[in-house]
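User: Here's a chain of 148 residues. Predict its fold as tokens.
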Amino acid sequence: MKEKIYHLGIKALIRNPSGEILLLRVNQEKFKDPKPGSYWDIPGGRVLNGHTIEETLRREVEEETGLTTLESFAPIDTVVSNIEIPLEGEQKVGLVLSIYNCLLRDEGNIRLSEEHTESSWFSAKEAAHLLSYKYPASFTEKVINLAT
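Assistant: Prediction complete.
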């Protein structure tokens, strides 16, 4: 049996001072292999060669939201996503996501990249429900527990 290949992605679960979580609606038109409909996600991206986790997290948050005032971040979970990334030809790779709880000092103005069409702040319970499209229940339960 052939082993599956995975890429590592770093994701930021950004909470504002009120405890709400920032979600971004994914722009399916920007994907090589779009899925029907749209879904909500948290900012993040894959680790580039020679980059640290913190560099990746800060770069992706700034690229996707324009936010630069992350006060702190701490690991929450590592999950295997149900999303696969197409490479050249027929090959696809899986995605392992390392997710960090990030506190935002100042909400500022969110400036979306082409990767997303909309942003909004949600309660932990609402965010967990919306994230269940991409993330396993073990993670979304942790999102809900952030509110307690």
